[in-house]
Amino acid sequence: MQKVAIYPGSFDPITNGHISIIKRALKVVDKLIVVVAENSEKNPLFKIEERVKLIADLGIENTHVKSFKGLLVDCAKQENVNIVIRGLRAVSDFDYEFQLALANRRMNRELETVFLMTDYKYSYLSSSMLKDMAKYGGNIEGLVPENVKNKLKERFLSYGDN
Length: 162
Ligand code: ADP
Description:
Layout: E1 4-9, H1 16-28, E2 31-37, H2 48-56, E3 63-68, H3 72-79, E4 83-88, H4 91-107, E5 112-117, H5 127-135, H6 146-155
Parallel strand pairs: 1-2, 2-3, 4-5
Residues 9-11, 15, 17-18, 20-21, 40, 86-87, 89, 93, 118, 122, 125-127 line the site of adenosine-5'-diphosphate (ADP).
């Protein structure tokens, strides 16, 4: 039987850190559903459809992307999946992730969260830091795929080269 997992997040926008987790996850599962959450951030830079498209356009094999509004446990149930992938960058992620994993398991005893470590190169990278860098013209080369770089450039045109 195929092992399928979901990888939920805001992905506002997807970064090379997220992609590193996707690639690692695909070493332990056969298929990955990247779930773009509609509710986890109140004021996202990109609309949900844009965030989904940026990921789908990467065409990562054995991966598909969808959006979801509501509880992760309900999304997992809907997809008939009981493995959740989350990325850990540093110890600072642990508290929140631990809380989230326990809350989810309380709602669905079958749901297991699997944590994967990022590539050290991306351990400091977050979508919010990236947005700040892009907004004020910092160099974001190597931190995001080409399509995301172009989209950020388009969005922050007035701020300079990035
Ligand atoms: P959320 O709002 O759910 O935290 P994010 O898009 O910020 O959504 O993150 C989704 C998941 O990806 C989280 O598990 C987060 O820890 C992980 N993640 C984010 N950035 C990185 C990175 N640079 N390296 C590894 N994992 C990351």
